[in-house]
Amino acid sequence: MDDQLNKDVALLRQTLDDDLSISQPRMPQQPLLVAMCGLPGTGKSYFAAKLTEQVPFLILETDRLRKVLVEHPRYSTQEHRRVFRSCYQLIQYYLINGYSVLFDATNLNEEFRTYLYDIAEATHAPLALVHATAPENTVRRRLKQRKADRHANTYSDAGWLIYTRLAPVEEPVQRDHYALDTSKDISPVLDEVAEWAKSNGQLKLD
Questions:
Q1: What is the pLDDT of residues 148-197, one digit of tens each?
Q2: Is domain 3-19+29-198 given the CATH code 3.90.226.10 in the classification?
Q3: Adjacent-strand bridge partners of 129
Q4: ∠ CA(92), CA(170), CA(68), 5° rounding?
Q5: CA distances in angstroms from 154 to 6, 49, 98, 123, listed in the order given
Q6: Separation of alpha carbons 183 and 43, rounded Å
Q7: Which residues contact 154 (CB under 8 A, 6 or more apart)?
Q8: What is the pTM of this model?
Q9: What average pLDDT does range 57-78 have in this prediction?
């Protein structure tokens, strides 16, 4: 790793190790990797929070970790790659050390997802991809509400402009995955992913 990456990883590890000291999740028999995929406003973080109520995961949320590295994010391509490079190192580190990881990020194209496929293969961690979607009018309403509230429940600054900028670059998920439409009842998919996790990743993805 280069010097900047080393510094970034060390800084983010402090934050994540603090999370572990507070939550003290069970060390699973089989460390698992769940990766969210989807545009801003599609409900990825809400689903991730609900899943961790049923199954213990260490959450790596890029919106949160970005602000640990960059006080005033600009969401540039260079900044994006900096955050994700650090996250890939940390995902592998925590999986190797016996923790199940939930990666809460956009993961919009196969280039970025390939890193996760490789990490899962290298660490022998079963991987579940959850692709979150919602109708545009629903997303727009959520993002407008998020901007109006500006409460502490979200780390994301993404608004409608960022959504429209990212939407054209989103690619279909090529591998087996859970399809999640968050404008509908999320319980069926939530239960499926929880059962997959409780089976130590042995259940086949639908």
A1: 665 545 667 778 888 999 999 999 999 999 999 999 999 999 999 999 99
A2: no
A3: 35
A4: 45
A5: 27, 11, 28, 31
A6: 9
A7: 45, 63, 146
A8: 0.92
A9: 90
